[in-house]
Amino acid sequence: MKFNVSSSKLFAQLQTVSRVIAGKNALPILDDVLFELAGDQLRMTASDGETTIRTSVEVESVEGCGRVASAAKLLLDTLKEFPEQPLAFTIDENNFAVSMVSQNGTYSFVGVNGEQYPEMPALNGTENQLTMPAKVLQCAIEKTIFCTADDELRPVMNGIFFDITPDKVTLVATDAHRLVRYSNTTVQGAQEANFILPKKPASLLKNVLGKEEGDVQISFGDKNVTFVFGTTTIVCRQIEGRFPNYSAVIPQNNQNIVTVDRQTMLNACKRVAVFANNGTAMLRLALAENSIKISAQDIDFSTSAEETIGCSYEGSPMAIGFKAPFLIDILAAVNSSDVQLKLADPARAGLILPAENEENEDVLMLLMPMLLND
Predict the structure, then answer these.
(1) Looking at residues 93-115, what average pLDDT do you find?
(2) pLDDT attached to residue 327
(3) What does pLDDT average to over the chain?
(4) pLDDT tens across 219-246, in order?
(5) Which of 239, 272, 339, 354 has its CB 3.0 to 4.6 Å from that of 262, i.e. a possible disulfide?
(6) Mean pLDDT throughout 364-373?
(7) Which residues, 6+ apart, have CB-to-CB distance to 356 below 8 Å?
(8) Burial class (CB in 10 A: 0-12, 13-18, 19+), 352
(9) Alpha-carbon Rg of the chain, whole angstroms?
């Protein structure tokens, strides 16, 4: 079989599907990308056994049809060095030898019979359908994925929980130390349903949805969930199990409220965190009228730092400790210019919210405190 294809278009789509390929695969053929030629479409499929992604690119001067699997890394390393130009491919259907002809050279390599490549998994059980704008889904994943865990004992916390109702869609992630809840009322489900999306396909979606302008069609059954957008389809296995009752852990009466410029606080936390103890990474926040004193120290190395920044504070003077990387991640994930910290006391979870949410959005982040020595 033969076809001609744009080098840049082939490279872009190959980059998209190859993101899913694992460093070590149980099946050697999963190191490859499956190419399927049918009409003027070249379909590419890659998988790690749990997540499968498929996309296509338009081709010209087509002769024949068929399937061949070829090493993804070899193709990517070659294509990334080409300027935009047409490439002519010829695949021998007997031994799956591949010849790629560019403007200045010829490249030859051997593929594998495409019939040996695992089939894309199908949905099992009752299908639920949901449509989300690509930008909304990407934004929701960006705001939640950093709070997912890496916990072998509690795998349900290693992904993003999609809680779908007829009123809104809510995405939740937690690692037991922090939690983020993102809701959007522009997206509604036909009925109440939920699933847990693993971290890897979530990260894949976050990276590939940036250029999409349309909608994402989401279908999920008992085991798998499918995302379809543009020419791309992603199918992954859900995380099985019951997600924690996230509503039960969100405090409702944190009466001490701080409003502060997000970037000012973020930068101060980053500077002071350099001086925190490597083991605890704790930042101490001392709250008083119109000011927050952010401090850290490492007694072992006799280093310390503190900064005082202005704020609006409604409540009693108090001090609370937070783990620096967690607080910095949360502040970095908020989009608004100002953030609110809602606190009860040094031993209870604090809430961090944007001072102003985007239209139809509701974002809430929760962070557990650390025990202060004083």
Answers:
(1) 93
(2) 97
(3) 93
(4) 998 889 999 999 999 999 999 999 999 9
(5) 339
(6) 93
(7) 336, 338
(8) buried
(9) 25
Long-range contacts of residues 163-172, Cβ cutoff 8 Å, at least 24 apart: 163/194, 164/128, 164/130, 164/189, 164/191, 164/192, 164/193, 164/194, 165/189, 165/192, 166/190, 166/191, 166/192, 169/130, 169/132, 169/140, 171/140, 171/141, 171/143, 171/144, 172/144, 172/243, 172/246
Q: Which DSSP letter does residue 102 get? A: -
The DSSP output letter for 151 is -
Structure tokens at 28: 């050697």
Task: Go through 199-221 and write b for each residue having 16 or more CB atoms within 10 A of its CB, e for each that does not.
Answer: bbbbebbbebbeebeebbebebb
Rounded CA separation 341/339 (Å)? 7
Task: Report the candidate in 44, 40, 41, 39 with the shortest Cα–Cα distance to residue 16.
Answer: 44
Report the C-alpha gap between 108 and 36 in whole angstroms: 19
The pLDDT > 70 percentage for the chain reads 99
The backbone region for 61, taken as left when phi is positive above 0, alpha when psi lies in -120 to 50, beta otherwise, is left
**DSSP H helices in 82-147:** 134-144
| pLDDT computed for residue 126 by the predictor | 59
DSSP state of 358: P
- Say what percent of the chain tops pLDDT 90: 84
Q: Tell me the HSE value of 193 on the side-chain side, using a 13 A CA sphere.
A: 16
